[in-house]
Every structure is written in structure tokens, then in C-alpha cells.
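[recover] target loaded
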């Protein structure tokens, strides 16, 4: 299941757009997103609900059809995946897997753990003996016992079910895993266990992660770089140290100010945004954030600011820095 390593980033997303048809106007769920993901790197994508982060992840694996733009995975444009031979499609699908948000609804309640893990291995041509050994190996890697292999999803806790989801994603030796709110449905103590598991697996198998989350405190612990999305666009992208210590976009600053701090003596001033997030069905002209921005100027209402580099690997979409 190994593949030749091509130079450059493992994943390159260029001007990705996902628009949904509506009666009055198209819904611009993702509206011109671009980023690279290196081999072995974790890119966090954060933002409020409805900002387009999950749609971005699902369009990369063709679970949501992209309207336009390029999704280049190891030199192959995945937006034209269906035009490739079936064998090539199968190989590329093997190399990108997803860990979904809800570990219960993403598992078939009528299938045992063995049946869940066996199917992808069978699709990719492993023999019965190889599949049995592989399933036992996967369970041990995610902290479960092979003795639990004949149980059904309802017999596991939420954390254990997410471990099953991770084992399923690992089953066919992927290179990129899209973690879509992979810990948001779990208790805080269990979140820490799953995050540590993901980090250990990344180091062992040299995995790349696209880590989608609304929880910046979680992203700070797992991401090498962070992209902040608002109304379908990336408004700031930077290495995690720069983003968390010196955020530049007013939206990023407001998100970071909302992170709970357990020590009351260290709590800073909370930046409360005015108004609600605009609907992608009726997105404002110019900068998408100007309706809630305290430092907007007249140009913000007319011209959308480009994502511009302000330091090494640090880009911001704002007219008034």
C-alpha cells in the first residue's frame, strides 16, 4: 500500500468554492479558500458554526461536490477524481480518510466492530487471514482489545466509539486524515485521551491531519498552523504560536478572547462582537466581517481584502492592520 513520494505539499487547495443552489441566490458555503498541507503536518481550521470549515473538508474527499477550484493531492486533482480509472480512484480514496464528529451516528449499529473494520480491508484486497491480523493490530493501536471485536457500537462508550472511528480511518494505511470535529462530542477528559492518541499515531505513521474544530483551545494543542474561517473565507492563517500570541484579524482576536482561562487573575478583556454572523445566502459586500468589525472603514464595505502575507507564513485578510 505504499506510494511514490512526490515533491511539494501533500495537499494543495486553490481557490476552492462550494456554492449551493437556492431560490433567491446561491449559498456561498466556501468562497475561495486556498491553503497547502505538508507531509506530517497538522493544519487546524477554526471558526464559528456555519463558516464553511466542514464543507471545505468534505469537498476535499468529494463527499460534497466542489463548484470550482483545485484540490491537488500528491499531484492529482481530486475535483476530477471520477474521470480517473477505477483502480486509480480506489488508490487515492485509500490515501485520504475521515474521522467524523459523532462517533455513534458514523458507525453502523447493526455491524460488529469486526464487520466495520473488515469491509475496507476487503475492498482493498486483503485476504481473510490478513484482515484478521490487521484488525487485531488496529485495535491494539487505538487502545482497544481484540476481545472486544465482536461487540456492537452501543456496547462501547463515546470515547471507545471514537477510537473505533480512528481505527477504521487507519485501516487502509492513509497519508491524510480529515478530523471533522473529532473530539467535540466527547467529555473533556476523554478529549485529552483522543488528542494524545491522534498525536501518537501521527508520529508513528507520519500522518497529515486537517483538523477541523470550533474549539481553539484544542487546536492550539494539535496544530502546526491554523486557518481561521469566516463566512466561507480564510481571514487569517499562521503558525499556531504566531496566531495565539499575536493575532492580527479582529475576528481572530475576538475568538481567542473567548477561550476560558481557569485563573481569574489572568483573564483578559473579552472582545464581544456586535450582531450575528451574516447568512451565506445574503453575504455582505466587501469584507465579509465588516458588519461586526469595530475598526472597519469605508473601503471595507466595498472591497473584499485579499489574504496578504504580513510575516513569514502569516497571512491576514484585512484593510486596516
Amino acid at each position: 500500500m505504499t506510494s511514490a513520494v512526490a515533491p511539494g505539499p501533500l495537499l494543495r487547495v486553490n481557490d476552492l468554492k462550494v456554492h449551493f443552489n437556492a431560490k433567491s441566490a446561491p449559498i456561498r458555503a466556501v468562497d475561495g479558500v486556498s491553503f497547502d498541507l505538508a507531509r506530517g503536518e497538522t493544519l487546524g481550521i477554526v471558526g464559528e458554526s456555519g463558516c464553511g470549515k466542514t464543507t471545505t473538508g468534505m469537498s476535499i474527499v468529494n463527499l460534497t461536490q466542489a463548484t470550482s477550484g483545485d484540490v491537488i493531492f500528491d499531484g492529482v486533482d481530486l475535483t476530477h477524481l471520477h474521470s480517473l480509472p477505477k483502480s486509480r480512484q480506489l488508490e487515492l480514496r485509500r490515501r485520504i480518510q475521515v474521522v467524523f464528529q459523532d462517533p455513534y451516528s458514523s458507525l453502523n449499529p447493526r455491524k460488529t466492530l469486526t464487520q466495520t473494520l473488515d469491509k475496507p480491508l476487503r475492498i482493498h484486497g486483503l485476504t481473510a487471514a490478513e484482515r484478521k491480523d490487521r484488525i487485531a493490530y488496529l485495535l491494539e493501536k487505538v487502545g482497544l482489545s481484540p476481545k472486544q471485536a465482536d461487540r456492537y457500537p452501543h456496547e462501547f462508550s463515546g470515547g471507545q466509539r471514537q477510537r473505533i472511528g480512528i481505527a477504521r480511518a487507519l485501516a487502509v494505511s492513509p497519508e491524510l486524515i480529515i478530523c471533522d470535529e473529532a473530539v467535540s462530542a466527547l467529555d473533556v477528559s476523554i478529549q485529552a485521551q483522543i488528542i494524545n492518541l491522534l498525536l501518537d499515531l501521527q508520529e508513528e505513521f507520519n500522518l497529515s491531519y486537517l483538523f477541523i474544530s470550533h474549539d481553539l483551545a484544542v487546536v492550539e494543542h494539535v496544530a502546526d498552523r491554523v486557518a481561521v474561517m469566516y463566512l466561507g473565507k480564510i481571514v487569517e492563517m499562521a503558525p499556531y504560536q504566531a496566531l495565539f500570541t499575536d493575532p492580527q484579524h479582529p475576528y481572530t482576536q475576538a475568538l481567542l478572547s473567548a477561550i476560558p482561562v481557569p485563573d481569574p487573575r489572568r483573564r483578559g478583556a473579552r472582545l464581544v462582537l456586535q450582531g450575528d454572523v451574516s447568512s451565506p445566502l445574503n453575504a455582505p459586500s466587501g469584507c465579509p466581517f465588516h458588519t461586526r468589525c469595530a475598526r472597519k472603514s469605508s473601503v471595507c464595505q466595498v472591497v473584499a481584502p485579499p489574504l496578504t502575507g504580513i510575516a513569514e507564513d502569516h497571512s491576514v485578510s484585512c484593510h486596516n492592520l
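[recover] notes: The CA atoms of residues 21 and 27 lie 6 Å apart.
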